[in-house]
Known about the structure:
This protein is an alpha+beta fold. Helices cover 29% and strands 23% of the residues. Strand 7 (168-173) and strand 8 (180-185) form a beta hairpin.
Amino acid sequence: MKKRRPAASLLELMVVMAIIVIVSAVSVPSFRAMYGPYKRDAGVDAVRSAWADARGRAMNENRPYRFAVEPRGSAFRVAPDEPGYWEGGDGPEDDPNGRGLVLEKSLPGGVRFTANGEGGGQPEDSDDNLLDEKAVANAEWTPVVVFLPDGTARNDAEVSFGRPGMARVTLRLRALTGAISQVKMEGSR
């Protein structure tokens, strides 16, 4: 005679499923909070990279490049500092200097920045983890810094990045040297 193997009852399965649901509900917010610094740092790295690219392009193409931000503080744009690139569109097709780089990016969800002490707004929490290389619909761009062909900039610039409940990180650009420094503002939330 074969012995029957005891199986789990429906009640036991439901208790195990309930425990899994409760543990998941408690741990998911903790996991999301862990990604906050990575999102903020991704935004910092994107702007640092855009500044370096704009400065390099200005020197290589022998024309100024502008870095500008969206007033809400969620996106930025890099393009030649010529009216045709900033009056809507991607610039003139018949540019005598050749087609310039036009780069637009959105920051990761929940990350906002202020440029030279203006703009930004309060960041909201979001599940969006990636930078978006896409045009920002109907954006009005506020100039932050213009990189000149000699490797300098027209003015010093400062961009601070924030996320709810986290210390701010500030990038500073020195106009005369083009040097970029990063400062973490401890205690600022």
